[in-house]
Amino acid sequence: MLQEVFIQLWRNPGLFDSSRGNLAAWLSVIARNRAIDALRKRRPESEIDDIVISVEPDLAGDAERARAMEKVRGTMGVMPSAQRSALEMAYFEGLTHTEIAAKTGEPLGTVKTRIRAGLLQLRKAFQT
After folding, report:
1. Cα 71 to Cα 66: distance, rounded to the nearest angstrom
2. Tell me, which fold does domain 73-127 have in CATH?
């Protein structure tokens, strides 16, 4: 392909106009255009429906996630219900601490303390 570009320049040197740019840039554009044309002319080697994508299952990762979820569920299951509820609203419902306080009618400081205590309890579960 590159050879074709140089042959084109050799046969028709008048195609290059130095007032529009330098020779290297012009050759790069010509080579790029030829490469794009060649790619467009190629036929696909196989139909897209015939292509099988093989992905190896990540069994170790899946097992680790399952153990982590089991640990989270077990830890949250033994938490006081108000603490568990505050954590669920913050992390599963996406509520802010202020929104949780408004929804539950609890003081903001209480909500923050419950969430912090719950997170500390979860952290401790993963350290053992």
Report:
1. 9
2. Arc Repressor Mutant, subunit A (1.10.10)
Secondary structure class of 35 (helix, strand, coil): helix
Task: Give DSSP secondary structure letters for 69-118.
Answer: HHHHHHHHHTS-HHHHHHHHHHHTS---HHHHHHHHT--HHHHHHHHHHH
Domain range summary for the chain, segments of one domain joined by +: 2-44, 73-127
What pLDDT, in 10s, does the model give residues 55-97?
Answer: 677 777 888 888 888 998 999 999 999 999 999 999 888 899 9
Q: Does domain 2-44 have CATH number 1.10.287.3510?
A: no
Q: Give the chain's end-to-end CA distance (angstroms, integer).
A: 63
Rounded CA-CA distance 89/114 in Å is: 12
pTM score above 0.70: no
